[in-house]
Amino acid sequence: MLLLEQILNGLQYSALLFLLASGLTLIFGIMGVINLAHGAFYMVGAFCAAYTASLSGSFWLAGLAAVIGSALYGLLIETSIMRRLYARDHLDQVLATLAVVFFTNELITVLFGRSPPAMPTPEWYGTFVEVLPGLMYPVSRLLFIAAGALVAIAMWLLINHTRLGMLIRAGADDHEMVGALGVNIARLYTLVFVFGCVLCGLAGFMAAPLLSVEIGMGEKVLITTFVVIVVGGVGSVRGALAGALLIGMVDGLGRAYIPQLLDQLLPAEVSGTLSGGLISASAYIVMAVVLLVRPRGLLPARA
Amino acid sequence: MKKLLVGTLLAASCVTSLLAQAQDPVRIGFITTLSTPAGYLGEDSRDGFQLAIDQENGKLGGVPVSLLVEDDGLQPARAKQIIDRMSLDGISLYTGVIFSNVLAAVVNTATKDGFYISNNTGPSSLAGKQCKPHYFVASYQNDTIHEMAGVAANELGYKKMVILAPNYQGGRDALEGFKRTYKGEVTEIYTKLNQLDFSVELARVRSLAPDAIFEFHPGGAGINFAKQYGSSGLSKTIPMVVPVFSMDERMLAATGDVAKGMNIVTLWNPGSENPANQAFVKAFSEKYNRVPTVYAAQTYDTARLIGAALKSVGGNTKDPAAFRQALRDVKFDSIRGDFAFGKNQHAVIDWYLLRVEADANGKLVQVPVQTIAKSQVDSFAAECAL
To answer: For residues B113, B119, B125 and B126, what is the CA-based torsion angle, rounded to 10 degrees?
Structure first.
């Protein structure tokens, strides 16, 4: 029963990673931009959600505000800054998007202050559901898993069964060719970027009641998100899903069982520090192993 | 005639230099963390210090002072650059640093020709054998708060506890400190530094079914932990004992109702009847429009301590031996209760247990439960040769 609960916990972390990684991988795969500012949109979403919820008291309105807020901010950043970066080399992109991170952090500080805001939640959000006989699980976390699953299905439909999805796939394969065929590539870029920001906003909204809404919250999760897209295969949404599941599970189950396992094998003084180190390194160890076996990631965009 | 002229000139120059000395404010270098998510700690500290100066119209202990605030950005290297520059400028009195790793970078330069008076962190490395004559800690020694949490847990009658902290020096010190005084059975769980989600650890806590837990997660991680502890339903059945840095006033506001019932171990009781404290809370709330945190409180205390020492040397900080003696013998109305410096020049203060409860308006407040220890000397003082 505890194992099942830990698997659900792993799934919930995977859902957060997937929401962030799917947008990031599309942006990287299609525009070729290393977007260090991706976490900033997640933060914007969380702040919009917390602010709206405390003003209006409505949970769903907060969700809407988070998505719209980060979409608008994404549109602003894309049209003013990102657009100039597509043709430039990676160093310029890293510098410029890092600047966006600093700028956004200060902007949020000026607008909302330094104190992390609280996100009020409705009564039902704090309740529990009996998932299996004897296994009570919080609604808040189930909702997170459900959101991740829904987005995964929606993206599969979008990418495999719509015209826009076809363009995205084509763009990930060869964006110059797509442009040469008369597709308005600038508009496609804007669309993909804003779409990534919408997913960040959604992730920010889902995370706001569970995690602390604070300046710099995006940077903390960004490194793991990069690990996810590298493991999954850059540019591939399926890869992002596989990577998020793998990293989420390894992290969750690792934290749950590595200390207990090592406690039985080794004396207490050694096992404590060793397990701590192993847990921190687990995601990177997985990444190294995956890259050794499949240098282009688990499910790369171009087969 | 010539003699008279020279004499008058000499006398005049003496008077002017005396006047100049009286007018030159004592400069205080205040290096603190104002940016990064931890920026509110520095902000509250700075505002607490400034409040003490403003209450005396630009003076501390009747001596004019000027406060020079710099942001270290939580980077020891940047703090080192700042202190080198301030030291070249001839500043000889410093305070403000929030984090131990930043303090480690500035303390040697600060105490070479001047004084450092800590308003927040007091790492164990500088409290024992390595204690320094020009280094004073007006706040607390880091380990003591965790030791006091252990004492509080004993008194609350908890026999079996799970204790959690991030896997870095501060976290390991916290758990070691707690175990030094706690008498019951413990299970230790180390979390990752900057971990966001604690569901896995919380599931393990539930399966271990302890009487209570102790956790040390400052800043955002502490808010995450408390929120998730609440949403997992554990807060209803298993009480928490935390040092105040895991749940300060701002974190409490961000955490919301799930923090209800938390036991908080602290060095300052915000509701204390102590008149100096009442005046401080009122003045701070009126000036800055927010409730002061423990960081504001202890830095305000530091400012007033400096004021009392300056007063007893008449504003003359040029004689280090006299100023040091003035600091060691300092007497002031601390807002935290009785105050004295121990052998290692670390604060000997009272420790309190507070509990988070809702007041008549439904607002969460920290209600005093009991005094854990009176005039507690830290565990390292005996090793110091000062």
So the answer is: 30
A280 touches chain B (CB under 8 A): yes
Question: Rounded to 5 degrees, what angle do the CA atoms B362, B368, B373 make?
Answer: 160
In the structure encoding, which two tokens stand for residue A162, read together?
């719509």
Which CA distances in Å does B48 have to B54, B249, B293, B297, B380?
10, 15, 9, 6, 28
Q: Do A212 and B220 touch (CB under 8 A)?
A: yes
On the CB side of B169, CA atoms within 13 Å amount to 7
Q: Do B203 and A9 touch (CB under 8 A)?
A: yes
d(CA A200, CA A40): 9
Residue of A nearest to B220 (CA): A212
Give the CA count within 13 Å in the CB-facing half-sphere of B1: 0
B187 in contact with A at a CB cutoff of 8 Å? no
Question: Chain B closest CA to A280's CA: distance in Å?
Answer: 6
Contact between chains at A216 and B37 (C-beta distance less than 8 A): yes
- Which residues of chain A make contact with B253, given a CB cutoff of 8 A? 115, 118
Contact A212 B254 (CB under 8 A): yes
CA distance B279 to B308: 18
Would you call B228 an interface residue with chain A, using a CB distance cutoff of 8 Å? Answer: yes
Question: At residue B196, does pLDDT exceed 90?
Answer: no
Encoded tokens for A169: 């796939």
CA-based nearest residue to B277, from B346, B348, B328, B352: B352
Residue B30 structure tokens: 């205040």
User: How close is the nearest chain B Cα to the Cα of A28, in Å?
Assistant: 25
Domain layout of chain A by residue ranges:
2-128+136-215
A128 in contact with chain B, both atoms CB, cutoff 8 A: yes
How many angstroms separate the Cα of A259 from the Cα of each of A267, B161, B189, B224? Answer: 12, 17, 8, 22
* Mean pLDDT across B261-266: 94
pLDDT at B2: 55
Those residues whose C-beta lies under 8 Å from the C-beta of residue B355, and which sit 6 or more positions away, are B261, B262, B263, B264, B366, B367, B369
Instruction: Show residues of chain A in contact with B233, CB under 8 Å.
Output: 128, 136, 138
Which residue bears the tokens 């931890």?
B38
Cα radius of gyration (chain B): 23
Distance from CA of A236 to the nearest CA of B (A): 26
Q: Does the beta-carbon distance from A115 to B40 stay under 8 Å?
A: yes
Q: Which of B313, B317, B292, B276 is nearest to B94 (CA)?
A: B317
Burial class (CB in 10 A: 0-12, 13-18, 19+), B365: middle
Q: Which candidate, A86, A103, A81, A83, places its Cα nearest to that of A28?
A: A86
Residues of chain B neighbouring A256 (CB-CB closer than 8 A): 200, 203-204
Instruction: List, for residues A132-153, the tens digit of each pLDDT value.
Output: 887 888 898 999 999 999 999 9
With an 8 Å Cβ cutoff, is B197 touching chain A?
yes
Q: d(Cα B192, Cα A223) in Å, to the nearest integer?
A: 14
By C-alpha distance, which of B51, B97, B59 is closest to B78?
Answer: B97
Dump pLDDT digits (tens) for B159-180.
Answer: 999 999 988 878 888 999 999 9
Structural domains in chain B, CATH included, are 7-140+273-337 (3.40.50.2300), 143-266+351-382 (3.40.50.2300)
Residues 6+ apart with CB under 8 A from B382: B343
Residue B357 gets which letter from DSSP? E
Under the banding of pLDDT at 50, 70 and 90, the label for residue B195 is confident
